Amino acid sequence: MKVLWLASWFPNRTAPFNGDFIERHAIAAAAFIEQLFVVAVVKDDAMEKGSVEIVKKQEGNLTVYTVYYSKGKFSPAEKLLSFRKYFSLQKKIYRQIEQEYGRPDIVHVQVPMKGGLFAQYLERKYRIPYIVTEHWAAYDPLCRPNILNYGKTFIRLNNLVLKGAALVLPVSDYLGGIINDHFVKIRYTVVPNVVNTELFFPGPKSDSALLQLIHASTMGYQKNMEAVVEALALWKQQGGAFELNCYGPVNLALEKMVQQHSLQQQVFFHGEVVQPVLARAMQQADALILYSRYETFGCVLIEANACGVPVIVSDLPVFHEFIKEGVNGVFVKQDDPAALAAALEKFAPSKSSFDQRAIANSTKERFGYQTVGKQISDMYRSVLSNNH
Q1: What is the Cα 114 distance to its own chain's centre?
Q2: Which of the two residues, 285 and 204, has the higher pLDDT score?
């Protein structure tokens, strides 16, 4: 079986961490099929005008084509011209793949817009069925900006890609439900995100008397780190002894807030790091905090759990799909710093009551490469069987 992935997001030189969870999905799926080709087209404003660069990377049966193209000459129609270039480059790489390896049996779109529009073209022209995996939090009305801010044309095209898919694979039931209830009726099966358990696994911890906390995210509005800082300031006043190590893009406003609350000796910012570095840091933690305002999954949660580390999370519906109170995590009333401070105070003396090995084993069983990769390949075979 030959599978073509059209990835709207994928790690690249302009954004090394963009869609890294999609890359992990590709690695997981590749173990169960004969050939997998990923095509990711990326605009690189640093390139010389009119230039194109194709980077091909092959590891075993996984081949990734990252295609970079330059910003066009200033024009009122720049967006349209950019999309035409994007589409034509997808077509160019597809032809290369078809000539060298033969026609793909199925197309897998990772995030409908804008990679999925070419999947519709292939379905109409060659009758190649396509499925869609959706990760995007923008369907949630609490998201800023959300999909409604992208305009009616964007939403219409996005819905057409979803509606035309043989099957949609949202990463959570919560996300599938939002799409179905508020945007377009789809047939969907949940296939979750994946964790690399060769990196994320239980490791020895330090003997620190302080509660060792970790946070990893984009540090933006969604993640609500301001409330975490406020909670830590409250807990410190009550005698809380802790360290919080944060991993993600620099956020000067957050760093200033930490200084204002005199938390410089407790809260540390390490910037963005590669997964092996993050894994080692998680192994040292007693708990991970993710106090988001909204989510459609939360990859860092399963990464922490794979290390045997429980998670302290905001009480969002999506988290109940894979977090169990007192088993692999703790739920806290959403956007309430006082409630979070109280939860931390309660958690600190009970941290050893969590079964590190059991958390790690159940996470590997449900979210490991072997499990999720097979789920994806089973979806391909099901769609192809029904299509025939």
Answers
A1: 17
A2: 285
